[in-house]
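Researcher: If convenient, please comment on what follows.
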Amino acid sequence: MERVVGLDVGTKRTGISSGYTALGIASGYSAVETKQLLSTLTQLHNEEPIAVLVVGKPLQMNGEPSESMGFIEKKVQEITNALHLSVAWQDERFTSKMASKALVDMNVRKSVRQNRSVIDEVSATLILQSYFDSRL
């Protein structure tokens, strides 16, 4: 089975999710400081090879890339240079809002819902699940 990892890259933190193409189900993995992202992905890749890296593409409502796109592209290039991974870009509009709503719908405590790391991890899971769903 091919392992796929989803990322919601931010300047401070990055949400990480993972799943398998054969199953088509994304699961949250973690949220790490973005400066530690490469070492975390290296460890994941060494444990079990990553076939595809699905990265949330920050777009504005008009479809144009947001201001953070340059930063994200640099970070993804650093990762692909080091690990030689295939990258798929996935629209990430509204994922943070959907993540917050999902946590409310699951009756998660407010203190947990306000934790940005939790929202980033859930956002990465939504990005990866969207990728899987678009391929069914």
The helical segments are 37-47, 69-83, 95-105, 110-113, 116-134. The chain is about 45% helix and 30% strand.
